[in-house]
Amino acid sequence: MATHEINIYGDIVPFKWMNDGSEFDRADLNNAIDNLDLQEGDELIYNINTFGGCTTTAFTMYNKLKRVKNEKKITLTSRADGYCASSGVILLLAGDKKIGNKYLKPFVHNAWTWAMGDKNETKKAFEELDKVDNEIAELYATETTMSKDLALQIMNESRDLTVDECLQYGFYTELENVQIVENSIIFNSINKRNSQFRNINNNNNMSEKNKETQKKDLWKQIENFFSGGKASNKIMFTAENMELDFYELEEDAMPEIGSKAKFDNRPAGESNNGVYIMASGDTYTFVGEELTSIEPKVEENAFEAENIALTETVSNLKIEIENLKAEKETLNKRFTEAESIIKNFKELEAPENKEVPREPNGKEKETEVSKVKSAIGNLKKTK
Question: Please, are residues 52 and 12 in contact by the beta-carbon 8 Å criterion?
Fold first, then answer.
C-alpha cells in the first residue's frame, strides 16, 4: 500500500485567471489525481491551504474526491496545511481522516455574492444564497456530528471554529504535532512551500519575451471567460438550446457542407440521429462529425400562401361541380323532350294499329304537323 500526496493551494475557482499559484481549479485537481498511480488500499493525502472561493466548484471537487475513493478503493486523508476557510471546509470534510492542528482553525460563514438590479433580482439572489447556506449546513450535518440547525447558527456568526469544536464535532479526527515558531519564520516557510507549486517566474527576473507571453495568455483567458469559458471555436445553438461545437471553425465563420462538429464531446452524428434543428430554423444533418446537409428554414408565410392557394382551388372546384350538376339537369330535360318527340313521330308513322283511326282531313293533318314542327323548333332553341 502506497501513500500519495497532492496540494490544494490557492483560491477555489472554476477556471484560473492567473497562473501564479494563487488559484486552484477543477482541472488542477483532475490533473493531480490523473498523474497518480492509485491502487486499491492506497492512501491519498491532500493538503489544503485556501481562503475559499466558488462553492459550486468546491462541491465539484468534493464529489471528485469521493468518487476516486470509491472507484479506486483508497483512503482519503485531508489535512489543513494552511488556512482552511469557507469553501475549503467543504474539501476538508471529504476526507476519511481529517488532520488539523491547534494553530489553524477552519473559518465558516454564510454564502455571499454580489447582487445588482431591482427588488426582484435582489430577492432572487437572497433565495439562492439561502439555498446554498442550507446545502453547506446539510453537508456539515452529514460529515460531522453537528446538527444542521447548529451549523446554520455558527455559519451565521461568521467565525473560526475552535480546536475543541473541530474535535468534538469531527471537523478534525486528529491533530498534527506542529512546533510553533516565530511568526516571520512561519510566513517565510509557507511562502517557500507555496512557491514549489507556482508555475511562474518572478516578474523582476522575467525576460521581456516571457512577460509578453504571459500577457497574451492572460488576455486569452479573459476572452475565454467572456465567451463562457470556451475557446474561439464556433459554437452554435439548436432550437432546444443545445450546443454544437464546430471545433475547426473560427468564431466568426459559418458552417458549410463538410464542416465538422461535436455534440457533448461526441461526433454530432452519434446523437439525435444526426439531425439538429438549429435556433435559426435551419436543419443540419451529420454523418459522424461531418455536416452533410443544410436545409434552410421554410418560412411561415410560404405555408400560409400555399394554404390560401389550396383553399381557393377547392372553392373553384366546388363552383365547377355545381355548374356541372346544373348542366346535367338541363341535358336530362332536353333528353326527355327528345324522347317525347321521337315517340310522337313513331305514333304518327305506325303502319299498324289495333284501332285504325279515321283518316284525318287535310286541316287536321296540317295541325298535327304544325305541332311537331313547333316542338322541334323549341328543342333547337334550348341548344
Answer: yes
